[in-house]
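JOB MANIFEST
job_type = single_chain_structure
chain_count = 1
residues = 140
[input]
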Amino acid sequence: MIVEPAGYMGIMRDAVRPLSAATVLASVHNNVNQHARFIYAVDGKVITGLDSMFPDEPRWGAEPDRLLPHLEDLGLADEFDEDEEWQKPGERFVEAALALAERCTGIRLTPEQVRGPLPHAASVTHLYEVRDGQAPALAC
């Protein structure tokens, strides 16, 4: 489990590949503009990726529909109804994406873990390095 306040490394290709090697990774990203992204990777390969705020937009990955039963159960597969009043952005989608991550990994992120201090910590700053003049790419 990685908690990265104000970071985005959990959705970057150069982090997803090694962090999911020989294991499972689920990453939930949500920024201050409520742009959200969910990545599910297994053994270095993105299986399913999606924007949890806009579930009717195309999903991507080796098996974009693999998590569809979970998405439907969590309310992340419904198309956005433009006639409905827009909900207060953010919380519903982040909570559902965290629940999806729990279903994919079997690990539950508790409020206490997020509020810190974290019991074990390691730096991922080396994953942010610019290589060959290119910034890290999204895992898509």
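[summary]
The first strand starts at residue 24 and ends at 30.
Helices lie at 13-20, 68-73, 91-105, 111-115.
exit_status = 0
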